[in-house]
Design a protein that fits this description.
The complex is a heterodimer of chains A (about 350) and B (about 525). Chain A has one domain: Rossmann fold. Helix content of chain A is about 45%, strand content about 5%. Chain A is built from 14 helices and five strands. Chain A has a five-stranded parallel sheet, with helices on both faces. In chain A, strand 4, helix 11 and strand 5 form a beta-alpha-beta unit. Chain A starts with a helix and ends with a helix. By secondary structure, chain B is an all-alpha fold. Chain B folds into three domains: about 200 residues, no CATH class; about 150 residues, no CATH class; about 150 residues, no CATH class. Helices cover about 75% and strands about 0% of the residues of chain B. Chain B is built from 23 helices and no strands. Chain B is globular, with a radius of gyration of 26 Å. Classes of the chains: A alpha/beta (about 350), B mainly alpha (about 525). At the A-B interface, helix 1, helix 6 and helix 8 of A face helix 22 and helix 23 of B.
């Protein structure tokens, strides 16, 4: 009988290993396209303590380039942002970061998504933001806060239940990269070289009805409380964009929230000119997402602001951290040099 | 809560845990509590209907049984004093009392079922009649009715119990909780099988010790059911609906494929669901009656109906067909025909009249639409023709000289399968009888060489088609293997690692090739507007 129980236990473990293998093989790797899907999972490859964690949506992962900031100002950082990342996802990603061993001095929160409430739920962005989270409780809570009716919470923990239909498109790479994949982001920054072939810029507008949804306000409040509890500085910000739907009144509302909580809110739109941003050549679209040139212009000012206003150490003199981060910087610069040809060609072909 | 959902799996696990930690004698109470929890979770306030059915069933059965006991006691006590006529008169009066209770109970329960399921159908037909005959558009308005979960199944099951009591088949259960559990046992509430009290009570009420055998048997049957449901039925559904929705522009060959697939789909769906039901019940040590016995291997329509939805068929046979055949009115009618028309026809009248009623109600039971009634009556017509043409078949078979050969069996199986498949088109055609007739006509006449691209347009790409074909072939081989005995028994006789290996492979097949969930579309994951 005892032998039978032991046999059964061994077999259960074997089945669990097979299940794990299936999960890893079937989950999309996001290596070639949809690379924003890698931002959450690559976070756990970061072994150095982070000084700044950036949170927000896609505008943030195209704007904040931690490796460039390291090169210029010597602090370490990571962007935990995803496409259409809601405020509640930002909150749980911060919880997850703290529970998995990081203790940043500063959290820079891009508030572009404050305007979207419960009605804004997209499965792909849920998956990209949450699926790779490591802290099980934060992950479960993030799933509960984000999922819509058809979604099966358990599939966030057993991805094969979600991606089983990929059997038609599995390639050798799905097996090769089942457990280990190369980093494709630069500490959460997605390096882009494109400029739009055509561009339409809509002027910013006003709206008397501008208001933030309750759920977004609630999760912003939670982020503020969490940072206060953990003694982390919080910067409320918005990257420079030409979004007509970010009404002037949103700035007023954000300023009110910041003032109420003794925080700073900066809409970097106002500094776009000082940054030398050219909407035609520094964005990949209609003035919303930066390419690498725009991102660096932004980070030059953004980093200076952080340096001037927050007490962050310059680790460039720290041999251990420097060796890791200078390696990142080399890789970043090499990739940038590689891609700039595409950028220059695009500029030359511009009307 | 779908039987193939993770929520249901969690619910079953929780129930299992509770069932096996309480003392055995309270096992049925646990099942009752969880059955009602399942019902309330699934259909909320409509639980009131099942409660009403349970109360009426319990008291009616008890009263009928008590009257039978009282009669037995009285006759025993007055054995010496009563004359034969006295006894007969007494029995008749007692039977009459029982009949009043039975009829009241049947009226109440079938009344609820009839009203909820058929009221709008009747109103719609009356309105149509008014329009056709009197050009009146002064229509009666339809009710906003919701059909409570499993009402057709639990009503038939509980009424079968009361009718059994009336015929004195067994004594009434005096424990109300047990009757309530019999009516509401959660694994079978959604789609049957329609169990007899005498069968189900053998294992439902006595608690069971945790047994590896029960768990393994239950899990194997559940897995088999899930395979049939999610790998076969749900996969075929997209093509079937694609072809049928575009029936007017789809070539006959593709419709024929849809008819074939629909047979597989409905079998996978229904028998798969029943396998899950039986498997879940087995986890608790409860044994349910089989509802399918490889029906697609039937050699005649009559045999098919003995092997498909067996419990419904036996319900109609025992509670409608037999009572009608021996009822005074129909017997007298038969006698009259024999005397005034023809001896041979007179003999057949009671049987065919009863059969007509059975198939009319079977059609109606399947749905409140004319296409279901027509489907039922076509079954009646085919069965009647089959019976009447039996001597002719014999002659033809003798001439062909293939009696008992494999070729003849294959032909009979093929013929039966396609007859039933074409009849099923009425079930498939949600737009009504005309749609069914067009589909049948086109599928028999408008043939072409099938193109994969068209099949893909109708909802099934080449990968899905390959999996579907492999799964159907596997089902066929599995069914062939079942003829030699239970697969589960053979599996249980294997060494533990082999058993685990086979089970794991099968589970992987279900997880990977199952047609469930949202479905991954990499295009949907491509960065959108933010």
């Amino acid at each position: 009988m005892r032998q039978r129980i032991i046999k059964n236990i061994i077999l259960i473990i074997l089945v669990a290993v097979i299940a794990l293998l299936l999960d890893h093989i079937f989950a999309p790797k996001y290596l070639d396209e949809n690379q924003d899907g890698r931002i959450t999972r690559e976070f756990y490859n970061e072994k150095t303590q982070l000084d700044v964690i950036g949170l927000g949506s896609s505008t943030m992962y195209n704007a904040m380039t931690p490796v460039y900031l390291w090169g210029e100002y010597g602090f370490t950082g990571y962007v935990r942002s995803n496409a259409s990342q809601t405020m509640w996802q930002s909150y749980y990603l911060l919880v997850d970061a703290l529970r998995t061993g990081h203790k940043p001095s500063l959290v820079a929160l891009d508030v572009s998504f404050m305007k979207y409430g419960e009605e804004f739920v997209e499965e792909p962005s849920n998956r990209k933001s949450i699926e790779s989270m490591r802290d099980p409780l934060a992950k479960w809570q993030a799933v509960q806060a984000s999922k819509y009716e058809e979604e099966q919470p358990l599939s966030y923990f057993f991805p094969v239940l979600r991606y089983h239909s990929r059997w038609k498109e599995l390639t050798g790479d799905d097996v090769k990269y089942a457990f280990e994949q190369p980093d494709v982001t630069y500490n959460g920054f997605l390096m882009e070289f494109k400029i739009p072939e055509e561009q339409t810029i809509f002027p910013r507008e006003s709206s008397e009805d501008a208001a933030f949804p309750e759920k977004s306000k609630d999760y912003l409040d939670r982020i503020i409380k969490l940072c206060r509890e953990k003694n982390i500085d919080l910067l409320l910000m918005k990257t420079p964009t030409y979004q007509n739907s970010w009404y002037y009144e949103y700035d007023e509302l954000m300023e009110g929230i910041a003032e109420e909580n003794g925080l700073t809110y900066i809409n970097f739109d106002s500094l776009a000119e000082a940054m030398g941003i050219d909407v035609r050549t520094d964005y990949i679209d209609d003035g919303e997402h930066f390419n690498v040139v725009g991102a660096e212009k932004f980070c030059k000012v953004f980093g200076q602001y952080i340096k001037d206003n927050y007490d962050l150490p310059d680790h460039r003199t720290d041999g251990e951290i420097s060796s890791v981060w200078n390696g990142k910087l080399d890789a970043y610069n090499a990739a940038k040099a590689d891609g700039m040809g595409e950028y220059k060609e695009a500029i030359e072909n511009m009307d | 809560m779908s039987y193939t959902s993770i929520a249901f799996a969690g619910f079953v696990l929780l129930t299992l845990f509770a069932y096996y930690i309480v003392p055995k004698r309270f096992g049925y109470m646990v099942l009752l509590v969880f059955s009602y929890a399942f019902y309330v979770i699934t259909c909320n306030k409509y639980v009131v209907y099942i409660i009403l059915s349970t109360i009426s069933t319990y008291f009616a059965a008890l009263k009928i049984s008590d009257i039978a006991d009282e009669q037995k006691e009285y006759l025993k006590l007055n054995k010496e004093t009563l004359t034969r006529e006295d006894k007969k008169a007494y029995k008749a009066s007692m039977k009459s009392k029982q009949r009043v209770i039975l009829v009241a109970c049947l009226l109440l329960n079938f009344g609820i079922l009839g009203f909820l399921k058929y009221a709008n159908f009747c109103i719609a037909n009356v309105n149509l009649l008014k329009l056709t005959l009197f050009k009146s558009t002064n229509f009666f308005s339809l009710y906003n009715l919701v059909l409570p979960l499993g009402i057709s199944f639990y009503t038939f099951q509980s009424m079968g119990y009361v009718i059994d009591m009336y015929y004195g088949n067994y004594k009434a259960e005096r424990n109300f909780a047990k009757v309530a559990l019999y009516v509401s046992f959660f694994p079978q509430i959604v789609q049957g099988p329609i169990s007899r009290f005498s069968d189900l009570s053998k294992t439902l009420f006595d608690g069971h010790d945790f047994s590896e055998k029960n768990i393994a048997y239950g899990l194997y049957q559940i897995m088999w059911g899930v395979f049939k449901k999610v790998v076969i039925a749900d996969r075929l559904a997209s093509y079937v609906s694609g072809a049928v929705n575009a029936y007017e522009s789809t070539r006959g060959t593709y419709l024929l494929l849809a008819i074939f697939f629909y047979s597989m789909q409905i079998y996978g769906d229904f028998s798969g669901g029943i396998d899950i039901t039986i498997g879940v019940a087995r986890l608790f040590g409860v044994e349910l009656t089989a509802n399918f016995e490889r029906p697609f291997f039937s050699k005649s329509v009559a045999e098919y109906w003995r092997r498909w939805h067996i419990t419904l068929g036996t319900w109609f046979k025992d509670y409608i067909f037999y009572p009608l055949t021996v009822s005074k009115t129909i017997m007298n009618l038969g006698k009259w025909v024999r005397k005034h028309v023809n001896e041979a026809i007179g003999k057949r009248v009671p049987i065919y009249l009863a059969m007509f009623m059975v198939w009319f109600t079977t059609g109606l039971w399947h749905g409140a639409e004319w296409r279901y009634i027509i489907w039922g009556l076509l079954n009646f017509v085919i069965l009647t023709i089959s019976t009447e043409a039996e001597p002719l078949y014999e002659k033809i078979n003798e001439k062909l000289g293939w009696n008992g050969t494999v070729l003849q069996k294959c032909f009979q199986i093929f013929r039966t399968f396609w007859i039933m498949s074409f009849l099923r088109v009425f079930d498939l055609s949600s737009n009504g009888v005309r749609q069914a007739l067009v589909i049948i006509k086109r599928s028999l006449t408008d043939w072409c060489i099938p193109q994969l691209s068209v099949i893909e347009e109708l909802g099934m790409d080449v990968y899905e088609l390959r999996v579907a074909v492999c799964a159907i072939l596997f089902l066929f081989c599995f069914s062939m293997a079942q003829r030699k005995g239970s697969i589960r028994d053979r599996l249980m006789a294997m060494k533990l690692p082999v058993r685990w290996a086979l089970t794991t492979v099968f589970a992987i097949v279900i997880v990977v090739f199952g047609s469930y969930g949202i479905g991954y579309d990499s295009r949907a994951f491509i960065y959108l507007q933010f």
